[in-house]
Amino acid sequence: MIEVKVPRLPESVSDATLVNWHKAPGDIVERDENLADLETDKVVLEVPAPQRGILREIRVQAGSTVTSGQLLAVFEATAGDRPVAVVADGQPAPVTAVAADATSATAPPAERNSGKTGPAVRRLAAEQGIDPTMLQGSGPQGRIQKSDVRKPVATGALRSPEPVTGDGRIERRVPMTRLRAKIAERLVTAQHTAAMLTTFNEVDLGEILALRSRYKEAFEKQHGVRLGFMGFFVKAAIEALRRYPGVNAAIEGQDIVYHDYYDVGVAVSTDRGLVVPVLRDAGRLSLPAIEAAIAEFGRKAREGALGMDDLVGGTFTLTNGGVFGSLLSTPILNPPQSGILGMHKIQERPMVVDGQIVARPMMYIALTYDHRIVDGREAVQFLVAMKDTLEDPARLLLGV
């Protein structure tokens, strides 16, 4: 028998929640197939099968809190293509696949069918009050997709029983995920510990749009990644941070720590909540490398594959509410950072250019900063520096 234990958790994480099991006792499992999902404050971790075999016994039920090295289940390896069991005399005896399947068939539906759903799908189903074991999957091998969850929501079918208040109104109570709880904790901490203030400016993105239109096909052909907006904003932010290092600093006790490197966080919205993967040493990255890294973060976020190393640290953050249609907002600091830049919707507005009223693609940008270490003048000049760079991107090449 092989013991399946909780993988080693990162140093900053003391425990995790066992969200659910993908397999039931008696199920035959392939090597590296995911047995269970563990949710930490930041990411969902998978527990892979050590090798091909049979899941014999589950020792920890879904919803339990677990720690590094804790025993989760007992796993029995197979000999060749057939599973084996140990009889009284200690000799291996064959167990047919039919018997294993019969054991699986007696398992509760939630355990038997949970392997057809991923963490994001299960979370969406829980938020919508839908039992995923009642859904018909449209994905490969019957795997349940997000669209399968949203379809019954639109029709009002397959919803789990919901409590009804005395006046007949329906309400649902869903446990807060560890990630959502951590987000809430950090936001409240930021409000209580930092002297936050937000300053605004607006940027004419006509030159950036023209560059993208002119070179997007050649850029993608050369580098294998789309030319987006975020790379320009990351580059412009780094140039502004070089000039105004207080926005890239943090307070530790009675000291101000100035970072001579630029680990730039890029906020990404997922089904589980907002996460901020970090571009390490972004000041050393080329524009294509930045775009490639951001695209990879987006892929990992969609698949629930972001690791702890992707999310820890960061000296400055960018968040783009414009992709959701936000015209203006005041972002909240990501502690212990002293600055966060909010990007917003690009909208054509009438502007006066050389004495003429013309329609220009404008974006409001917002810098929220910790007033304990960043003065108002420095914050305004930071945004002006970004504005100058974005409106004349040749400055990035010339270093002016």
Kindly describe this structure.
- This protein has 400 residues and is of the alpha+beta class.
- Helix 7 (230-243) crosses helix 10 (376-391).
- It folds into two domains: 2-116, OB fold (Dihydrolipoamide Acetyltransferase, E2P) (Beta Barrel), CATH 2.40.50.100; 179-398, Chloramphenicol acetyltransferase-like domain (Chloramphenicol Acetyltransferase, 2-Layer Sandwich).
- Helices cover 31% and strands 27% of the residues.
- The strands form five sheets. Strands 11, 14, 17, 18, 19, 20 and 21 form a seven-stranded mixed β-sheet that branches. Strands 1, 3, 6, 8, 9 and 10 form a six-stranded antiparallel β-sheet that branches. A four-stranded antiparallel β-sheet has the order 5-4-2-7, with no helix packed on it.
- Mean pLDDT is 81; it is low at 83-115.
- It contains eleven helices and 21 strands.
- It has helices at residues 97-105, 109-113, 119-128, 146-155, 178-193, 206-223, 230-243, 287-303, 308-311, 376-391, 394-398; strands at residues 2-5, 16-21, 28-29, 34-39, 44-48, 53-58, 65-66, 71-79, 82-86, 92-94, 196-204, 249-252, 255-258, 264-266, 268-270, 273-275, 278-279, 316-320, 339-343, 347-353, 356-370.
Q: Given this structure, which CATH class of the largest domain is correct? A: Alpha Beta
CATH fold-level label of the largest domain: Chloramphenicol Acetyltransferase
Which percent bin holds the helix content?
Answer: 25-40%
- Shape, principal axes of CA atoms: elongated
Query: How large, in whole angstroms, is the Cα Rg?
Result: 26 Å
